[in-house]
Specification:
It comes from Paludibacterium purpuratum. By secondary structure, the protein is α+β, with helices and mostly antiparallel strands. It contains twelve helices and 16 strands. Strands 1, 2, 3, 4, 5, 6, 7, 8 and 9 form a nine-stranded mixed sheet that branches. Strands 10-11-14-12-13 form a five-stranded mixed sheet, with helices on both faces. Strand 4 and strand 5 form a beta hairpin. The radius of gyration is 22 Å and the shape is globular. Bound molecules: adenosine-5'-diphosphate and magnesium ion.
């Protein structure tokens, strides 16, 4: 068989291929947009979804905004304001840094990016249709940024076929929204789906945010926890073994503010509950691990849901002992609670 000559793929196609990894479904696009808003320092974020996010995802924030001249660059692949060197990558403190979120979303949707920096006289917008950029134009917008992605995967029918029903895609979007909102009680969030308000979350304490999202019964059945060992810090809430659900729904584990799934950590948490929990039930927790960013590699996968600890044994021990201590003290707390 005669092979065709080797050719460099056009940028547009490169982006669409990458989009398969970064924005597998509407919920992954929503995650990229929410993370951008948080990285921009927003303390108020509004999300509008239509038809499970397939028809529309719009995220509006009051963050720092993007300069008019930078708008095309924001949609460019591998263009980022968040890191500039390997050194910075190794201790990255922002949620994003790969510079492919917006480029990926733009390549599989009709995207409008509107932004205004605080000191600008007005906003500017740029449209990307099927990944192709239109000229920057003046627009109206309060300081901050709005990104609107319409008709996801309209130009990649193969991917579109993999999407599930609106309801299922919406459920994934809601899960992403809830994970992020749980971690940031200092930010006001609003979520609407098909025009109806689903979540209206005012700024508040961590306990208030957890109660709003997971229910007052979760907080009431939970033990607050705070442990420090050297550079490792763990805070959050773990449910009393009597609360535990039969599903894994209520397991939220964050590293430096990022929701992650990490085997070592999951194992340590399960072990800590082993003696107090019936084996068919699952623990419920919202836990925030804070550590030196250089001691954790977040650049394992484009979606960054996987991380690697440099010293996973130390992390395992710390998590296990922290939970163990709190859980073994819980018998007394429960007894108190019965007198209320
Ligand atoms: P990354 O987040 O990895 O840098 P993105 O493609 O998601 O890559 O975004 C590219 C750049 O566009 C960001 O580095 C940032 O400078 C800018 N940007 C994107 N979204 C926002 C936003 N909501 N507010 C301010 N700047 C933004
Ligand atoms: Mg990003």
């Amino acid at each position: 068989m005669t092979m065709r000559p080797i050719r460099r793929l056009p940028d547009h196609l490169v982006n669409q291929i990458a989009a398969g990894e970064v924005v597998e479904r509407p919920a992954s696009a929503l995650k990229e947009l929410l993370e951008n808003s948080l990285d921009a320092g927003a303390d108020k974020i509004t999300v509008d979804l239509a038809q499970g996010g397939i028809k529309l995802i719009r995220v509006t924030d009051n963050g720092g905004g993007i300069a008019a001249d930078d708008l095309p660059l924001a949609l460019d692949r591998h263009a980022t304001s968040k890191i500039a060197s390997l050194d910075e990558l190794e201790q990255v403190g922002t949620l994003g840094f790969r510079g492919e979120g917006l480029a990926s979303i733009a390549s599989v949707s009709r995207l409008t990016l509107i932004s205004r920096q605080e000191d600008a006289a007005h906003a500017h917008q740029i449209l990307a249709i099927d990944g192709r950029l239109h000229p920057v134009e003046p627009a109206a917008h309060a300081p901050g940024t709005s990104v609107e992605a319409v008709d996801l995967y309209f130009n990649t029918p193969a991917r579109r076929k993999f999407l599930k029903s609106d309801n299922t895609e919406y459920a994934h979007c809601a899960a992403v929204f809830e994970r992020i909102a749980l971690a940031r009680p200092d930010v006001e969030f609003l979520l609407r789906h098909n025009g109806k308000v689903v979540w209206r979350l005012p700024q508040g304490s961590r306990a208030e945010r957890v109660a709003a999202l997971l229910g007052q019964d979760f907080i009431q059945a939970s033990l607050p926890l705070e442990h420090v060992a050297g550079p490792l810090q763990l805070t959050g809430f773990i449910a009393d073994p009597t609360y535990s659900k039969a599903s894994r729904d209520a397991q939220y584990f964050y590293v430096n503010g990022r929701f992650v799934r990490e085997k070592t950590a999951q194992h340590a948490l399960r072990q800590a509950y082993r003696d107090v929990l019936h084996h068919e039930r699952h623990p419920a927790y919202v836990l925030f691990l804070t550590m030196d960013p250089a001691a954790v590699d977040v650049n394992v996968h484009p979606t960054k849901i996987e991380v690697r600890f440099r010293e996973s044994q130390a992390v395992h021990q710390f998590l296990f002992h922290s939970l163990n201590k709190t859980l073994s003290g819980s018998a007394g707390n429960r007894a108190d609670a019965t007198h209320e």
